[in-house]
Design brief:
Elements: E1 23-25, E2 37-40, E3 45-49, E4 54-55, H1 75-80, H2 116-126, E5 135-137, E6 149-150, E7 153-154, E8 160-163, E9 173-176, E10 185-186, E11 201-203, E12 213-216, E13 231-235, E14 248-251, E15 254-257, E16 264-267, E17 270-273, H3 288-295, E18 300-304, E19 314-317, E20 329-332, E21 338-339, E22 342-347, E23 350-354, E24 364-369
Parallel strand pairs: 1-2, 5-8
Antiparallel strand pairs: 2-3, 3-4, 6-7, 8-9, 9-10, 11-12, 12-13, 14-15, 16-17, 18-24, 19-23, 20-21, 20-24, 22-23
C-alpha cells in the first residue's frame, strides 16, 4: 500500500475542510512559503506570509477601497463628540446657513463677536444714544392720566415721548404712551440703572421740537425715578431764516450786506467806506488837504527848518493845498523869539523863506496856517 506524503500539495477538489488548524507557535516559521498561514500564539492572531513579511489580514493599514460610514458602529458618536475648538481653524468664511449662534458670552477682546444683550446694553448705557421719541413735553404732564397730545403731537399706544419739565423733577425721562387718560410707563431702555447717563442723547421726530436733539446733563445716581434728570436741547433742525430788511439780504442759504450807495463797497475782506459827501457828514475827499478844502477848515503846518543861506529862498512844502495862507511865522527854537523873514507863496502847497543872515539847520521852526 502506497504511503501519501502530506508535505506535498493535496488537491481537495473544492471539498470543504473542517477542523484545519494552521501551524501555531510563539515564533514565526523560519522558511515560510507564499501564502503560508501561521497562528501567533503570543498575540493570538493568524497571519500569512506575503514573501516579505507576516501580515495580519485585519490590519487597517493594509486595507484599500471604500468603507461606508454605516458599517462603522461608533463613527457618528465619535465625530459628534469632538468639540469645535478641537478642529483646525477655518481658512475661509464660515456660513451659518441663515441660522443664529446662541448661548454666547459677552466679548472681552476687540476681535470677539458681540451678543445681542451686550450691544443692547452698550446702546442703552455706554454709547448713550437712545432711539428717537415722537415728541417732547416742555410742561408738566400728568403721567397717571395722559393728555391726548404731547408737545403738539397726538400720540398713540406704544409711542414714546420725553418729559423734561416734570414736578417733581424725578419724574423726568423717556416714557411710553398708552392712551389719552391712561398712565405712562418708562420706556424699557430708560428704566434701569445705567440706562440713562450724563451725556445720554435722544432725537425728537415730531412736534414743536421736531429735528431737535436733547442731552441729559445730570450725573446719574441710581435707577430713573430716584434722581432728577436734566434734559437740555443742544441742536435744532429745520430752522428757517428770514432777512430783516435792514441791511441784510438772504438769497437761498446765503446772507449778504445791502449797500445803500456807491460810498460803500464790500469784498472778501469786509465792508469798506468810500468817499462820503459833506452832505452826509463826510469830506468828499481822499486826502487831508482835500478834506480841509471841502469843509472850509483851517489847516496848520509846523516843522523845523533846514539850513538857511543869507539871501537865498528856502522852499517849504506845507501841503495845505491853498494859496490863501496867513503870513508864516519863524520861531527861534533855542530862545522862543519870533523873528522876521521874507515869505513868498510859491504854489498851493509851497512857501519860500528868505533871511538876511545864514543859519544852521534846526535853528528855527516854521508855522504855516491856511
Amino acid at each position: 500500500m502506497a504511503v501519501t506524503d502530506f508535505r506535498d500539495p493535496l488537491k481537495l477538489n473544492k471539498l470543504p475542510v473542517r477542523g484545519l488548524v494552521p501551524e501555531t507557535s510563539s515564533s514565526a516559521p523560519a522558511t515560510p512559503a507564499e501564502g503560508q498561514l501561521w497562528t501567533d500564539s503570543v498575540n493570538h492572531v493568524i497571519k500569512f506570509w506575503n514573501l516579505s513579511a507576516w501580515k495580519n489580514p485585519l490590519d487597517r493599514g493594509d486595507h484599500t477601497g471604500t468603507q461606508t460610514a454605516s458599517t462603522i458602529s461608533d463613527l457618528a458618536a465619535t465625530v459628534k463628540g469632538y468639540r469645535l475648538d478641537e478642529f483646525a481653524a477655518p481658512t475661509a468664511a464660515v456660513s451659518l446657513n441663515n441660522q443664529r449662534a446662541t448661548n454666547g458670552a459677552d466679548p472681552t477682546s476687540a476681535s470677539d463677536l458681540a451678543t445681542k444683550s451686550y450691544v443692547d446694553n452698550a446702546r442703552a448705557g455706554i454709547a448713550g444714544v437712545k432711539d428717537p421719541v415722537r415728541a417732547v413735553s416742555a410742561v408738566n404732564v400728568n403721567l397717571a392720566s395722559l393728555p391726548a397730545t404731547v408737545g403738539g403731537v397726538t400720540l398713540g399706544s406704544g409711542d414714546s415721548f420725553l418729559a423734561t419739565t416734570q414736578t417733581p423733577g424725578t419724574q423726568n425721562g423717556i416714557y411710553t404712551y398708552s392712551a389719552s387718560g391712561g398712565a405712562a410707563t418708562r420706556r424699557p431702555d430708560a428704566d434701569a440703572v445705567g440706562e440713562i447717563l450724563d451725556g445720554t442723547m435722544v432725537a425728537v421726530a415730531e412736534g414743536t421740537d421736531a429735528g431737535s436733539q436733547y442731552i441729559q446733563t445730570a450725573v446719574a445716581s441710581g435707577a430713573p425715578g430716584t434722581w432728577t434728570q436734566t434734559w437740555t436741547k443742544f441742536s435744532t433742525g429745520g430752522q428757517t431764516y428770514t432777512a430783516d430788511g435792514q441791511g441784510i439780504e438772504l438769497a437761498g442759504t446765503t446772507f449778504s450786506l445791502e449797500l445803500a450807495d456807491a460810498t460803500l463797497s464790500k469784498s472778501a475782506s469786509g465792508l469798506t467806506v468810500g468817499l462820503v459827501p459833506v452832505t452826509k457828514g463826510g469830506t468828499g475827499a481822499t486826502t487831508v488837504a482835500g478834506a480841509r478844502t471841502a469843509l472850509g477848515a483851517v489847516g496848520k503846518y509846523a516843522a523845523s527848518l533846514g539850513a538857511l543861506t543869507a539871501g537865498t529862498p528856502l522852499n517849504v512844502a506845507h501841503g495845505l493845498n491853498t494859496l490863501d495862507i496867513k503870513e508864516p511865522t519863524l520861531r527861534e527854537i533855542s530862545t522862543g523869539e519870533l523873528v522876521g523873514a521874507r515869505f513868498i507863496v510859491v504854489d498851493a502847497n509851497t512857501v519860500s523863506v528868505t533871511t538876511a543872515a545864514s543859519y544852521a539847520a534846526g535853528t528855527f521852526s516854521i508855522v504855516v496856517v491856511g
